[in-house]
Amino acid sequence: MSDATDAQLAAQYEAFPYPRRDPRDEARRLVVGSPGHLREIDYWIFGARRSASRPLRALFAGGGTGDGTLMLAQQMTTAARTGTVTWLDRSAASLKIAQARAAARGLGNIVWESRSLLDLPGSGLGPFDYIDCCGVLHHLPDPAEGLRALTSVLAPDGGLGLMVYAPHGRTGVYMVQDALRLLAPAEETPAARLDVARRVMRHLPETNWLRQNRFLDDHVNGGDPGLYDLLLNPRDRAFSVPQFAALLAEAGLRVACWVEPLRYDPMFWLPDPKLRAKVEVLDATGRAALAEALTGNINAHIVYCVRDDAPRERADPMADDAVPIGREVTGEQLADYIQPDGSITLAFDGLRAPIPLPAMAPAILRLVDGRRTVGEIGATLASRGSKPEAFARAWQATFKALEHVNRLLLKAPA
Ligand SMILES: C[S@@+](CC[C@H](N)C(=O)[O-])C[C@H]1O[C@@H](n2cnc3c(N)ncnc32)[C@H](O)[C@@H]1O
Question: Which residues pair with 60 in a beta bridge?
């Protein structure tokens, strides 16, 4: 199902391919993030139980100018992983940029599909082991139809990585969108609308919530595509945790991980025992909804999800043959971040989270290099005088704490 607003959306991404990217920048950096990160897919979707030698068939639906597609294609190439990454979008302007970026990297594992994701059912594409849809469902006329189209080409044991907007962290956005609908209606040209939006941004009253929202900057740093996407988009809706969970449930999906798990864990923010007792009785969605409402700063929900009936087991981090790996930074770097009080402090959109770690954590983390097994790390520390039980306790606590912030994961088996 398409409508007039959808036609405006299609026109927007032809005029302003999103996000703004220059292929020349590939020479100096790879854009990484969630969802779509190979190590996250290996761990959160496949539980570090799917062999790295099995080809991975991935789809980026609404791939835009290529951020996720290039990240995964590059990570697979670097790790000598076989398979293909299919970029799919209906924006020809985005295709041009994404292809130029891929060419700049010399990537040969990308398949290009110019079409609507709503045409996936019966398209002959797929099945895919991993489907990524980042920042797209919330623009569709019917997000549930979009999700059904995606799951129609998902392999039985595959999973999805999704991102949709969330309401509280976008405080201010919808008020400014309302104002701009009055001053720069959709019938005007994109250039005229942008001009009005820029003028309005210069005169936002000091009480305006977008002006006070320090954690959104697309309209400031994202060029014309960023400003247009945030404030002049013909359709975007934000999903609260319960609304998003209902959308997933209707599609027969179960959340394997809210990213980062700690942000969705109200226990972390509520030390009061009486309150914790009340949290205990909430189900997983209720807890995530509570954390969202309490912290108030989540501007997008990122989830990895699998089919309802998919196995829940993950590889055991205590197994001798498990191989821990930092998601992006190395174990050595994680150890360097540990403060004198033994904790690591992370910040999520302004929300500081001190993560307490056991005293042995630095010594353990310095041995985490993505190759050593847990057994080898334990043996090395034993040779330096650590007791096996002390190592086991410290490793369990270290992994649990850093997995909860999506910084330390387990590697896919060979
Ligand atoms: C906000 S951009 C996100 C791009 C990319 N996923 C990212 O996160 O960087 C939304 C993208 O969805 C695409 N899109 C919107 N509706 C679509 C549809 N029905 N089929 C395919 N692509 C669509 C747009 O063309 C645009 O490139």
Answer: 87, 132
* Gap from CA of 21 to ligand 1 centroid (Å): 15
Q: Is 254 helix (H, G, I), strand (E, B) or coil?
A: strand
Residue 363's closest CA among 338, 383, 335?
A: 335
Chain centroid, CA 412 distance in Å: 19
Pocket residue to mutate for ligand 1, from 136, 150, 160, most atoms within 8 A of Cβ: 136
117 lines ligand 1 (CB under 6 A): yes
Q: How confident is the model at residue 312 (pLDDT cuts 50, 70, 90)?
A: confident
Digit-coded pLDDT (tens) for 67-96: 999 999 999 999 999 999 999 999 999 999
Q: Is the CB of 64 under 6 A from ligand 1?
A: yes
For residues 411 and 25, what is the distance between their CA atoms, to the nearest angstrom?
A: 29
Q: Identify the helix (H) or strand (E) that includes residue 354.
A: strand 351-356
Which protein residue's CA is at the shortest distance from atom 14 of ligand 1? 62
| Cα–Cα distance for residue pair 239/247, rounded to 1 Å | 9
b/e code 365-398 from CB counts within 10 Å (16+ = b)? bbbbeeebebeebbebbeeeebeeeebeebbebb
What is the helix, strand, coil percentage profile of the chain, to 5? 45, 15, 40
* 66 Cβ closer than 6 Å to some ligand 1 atom: no
Give residue 315 CA to ligand 1 midpoint distance, Å. 34
Question: Which residue type, as a one-letter code, is found at position 254?
Answer: R
From residue 298, give the alpha-carbon distance in Å to each of 2, 188, 213, 287, 288: 30, 32, 12, 14, 11
Question: What is the Cα–Cα distance from 271 to 391, expressed in whole angstroms?
Answer: 27
In degrees and rounded to multiples of 5, residue 285 shows phi and psi of -65, -40
Which residue's CA is minimally distant from atom 1 of ligand 1?
135
Look at the block and give the residue holding tokens 């009061």.
272
Indicate the pTM of the whole model.
0.97
**8 C-alpha vs ligand 1 centroid, how far in Å?**
13
pLDDT in tens, 8-18: 999 999 999 99
Does 19 contact ligand 1 (Cβ within 6 A)? yes
